[in-house]
Design a protein that fits this description.
Beta-Lactamase; five-stranded antiparallel sheet; single chain; alpha+beta
């Protein structure tokens, strides 16, 4: 042995020094030893065994299997069987054991027992070595639990080493992707799962994310063993040891192919619907423009005939008949013209061609001017019951469009409440918004029809006898929404209808 000058070799080799070094080595390696002498029935422990069992030096070692809580049930029987086997065969044997501490904690150890024989081969005692394997067993149990969960899940679970080489896959990996464990263990999954249509940007994003945060979540197009495309949603996480060293990657992958196919079909359907809507808008605009000219011609021709009738000396009975039919034709051409204008408005709104021309105005003055100029257009000549229960504010608003909205709603209130008390228009203010409520006492709207009230060309089932196109409320809603507001309806059949406009300022 090489040693330095002044080094005390005798002291280093002394029994006391050796015992101290062995105790330190045992504690560091978590290894203890014991000796049992048959003749004296006496057992001696090393220091580490007292630490492992968490007992003091006065503990009676020979009582370990008799009067303690450490070895319970089958564990106690297994230790007794190991001692009996070594004693009977005079050969060394090992086994793993679980002990229960006083507070319920579990510890694990491996014990190897050697027979001690004299010169004639007679058994004189036993020598045992105990190694604490609690940390290893806890890791194994945790891995077993993870593996059990991974095997039971329908998703793909894969574990790689720090170099992204596969070290474990679950059964779903084989079921979904078609690869057996022996085919992929040791391989980088990118080498056989990615293909010609796998996004290069996604591959780069996975690498960037794992380098940065150690995690990645997202979609990727991969390929099965048979070459079929499969969309997977990945959740990848890096696993580090206690020193911060990267040891594994764990990937959980779910097959979202059906979802992606549904998204693709939906996208195609949306694109087709957009194309149909564009075609419909173009057709409706063209048709509306084409109708406007002959309608205007019809109206002017009727007026010309009316003038000629007065100077043509036609008998009074014919003139009266003509004027009755003229009134009908005029009313129908006006209705058709309004319908065409409404259709054109819808087209302009859908194409984003209607721009609000807002200007500041007193909201109270605007409402008073509207109410004054909008009595019932015919019949009873009723006037709105009007209340402005709100503070006056100067607001930005397109007065022309807002007047058209209110006119449409108020005319409906008059039309569907003929012969009833006059409709009411009330303005209130809360949460920085005006609420304009138009209440009538007419026929009401069936509950089954109300969800469709703001759709194009829809008319309530009890309103078919009244003139109308089914476009007014839909246009009103679109124009209110352009102002950043909203509109909704409350009604019960036979008890009238309440339309409320919310207009934020």
């Amino acid at each position: 042995m090489n040693y330095r000058p002044h080094f005390n070799l005798a002291a280093f080799d002394s029994l006391e020094s050796q015992q101290k070094r062995l105790a330190l080595l045992g504690k560091t390696a978590q290894i203890g030893e014991w000796s049992y002498v048959t003749a004296t029935n006496f057992t001696v422990w090393s220091d580490y065994l007292y630490d492992f069992y968490e007992v003091d030096k006065h503990f009676e070692c020979s009582d370990l299997l008799q009067n303690t809580h450490f070895y319970q049930g089958s564990e106690k029987e297994k230790m007794q069987a190991l001692i009996a086997h070594v004693t009977a065969t005079k050969t060394e044997h090992s086994d793993d054991f679980m002990i229960v501490m006083a507070d319920g904690r579990i510890k694990w150890h491996t014990t190897t027992i050697h027979p001690v024989l004299d010169a004639r081969g007679n058994l004189t005692g036993l020598y045992g070595i105990l190694q604490n394997i609690t940390a290893r067993k806890q890791s194994e149990l945790e891995l077993q639990r993870m593996a059990y969960v991974a095997e039971k899940t329908n998703g793909i679970v894969m574990i790689t080493d720090s170099e992204k080489r596969i070290i474990w896959i679950n059964h779903s990996f084989e079921q979904i992707l078609g690869y057996r464990p022996e085919e992929v263990i040791g391989l980088d999954p990118a080498a056989f799962l990615q293909g010609p249509e796998t996004s290069v940007e996604t591959i780069r994003e996975i690498a960037r994310s794992l380098r940065g945060s150690g995690t990645f979540s997202g979609e990727i197009l991969n390929y099965t063993k048979s070459g079929e495309k499969i969309w997977l949603y990945l959740n990848i996480a890096a696993v580090y040891d206690d020193t911060g060293k990267l040891i594994n990657y764990v990937a959980v992958e779910n097959d979202i192919t059906l979802i992606k196919m549904a998204e693709h079909r939906l996208q195609k359907a949306i694109e087709k619907e957009r194309e149909l809507n564009r075609f419909k808008t173009q057709f409706v605009n063209l048709a509306s423009h084409q109708f406007r000219t002959p309608l205007a011609t019809i109206r002017s021709s009727i007026d010309v005939l009316d003038l000629k009738m007065e100077s043509a000396g036609v008998n009074a009975a014919f003139v009266d008949l003509f004027r009755r039919h003229k009134a009908i034709m005029t009313e129908e051409t006006v209705r058709m013209t309004e319908l065409m204008e409404n259709i054109l408005d819808i087209g302009r709104i859908d194409e984003g061609k209607i721009e609000l021309s807002k200007k500041q105005c007193s909201f109270k003055q605007f409402m008073e001017g509207f109410v004054e100029s909008n009595p019932e257009p015919a019949g009873q000549q009723r006037k709105l019951v009007y209340r402005f229960d709100a503070p006056d504010r100067i607001i930005d608003m397109d007065e022309i469009l807002m007047r058209n909205v209110l006119r449409n709603i108020v005319s409906n209130a008059f039309k569907y409440s003929e012969g009833k008390q006059a409709p009411e228009l009330t303005v209130t203010f809360r949460d920085n918004a005006y609420f304009i409520a138009v209440k009538d006492y007419g026929i009401g709207i069936p509950e089954k029809d109300q969800p469709f009230l703001f759709q194009s060309f829809f008319r309530a089932s009890n309103a078919k006898v009244f003139p109308g196109s089914g476009l007014g409320l839909m246009i009103a809603k679109k124009l209110i929404m352009l102002h950043g507001g909203d509109i909704h309806c409350e009604s019960t059949i036979g008890n009238g209808c309440l339309i409320t406009i919310q207009l934020s300022i």
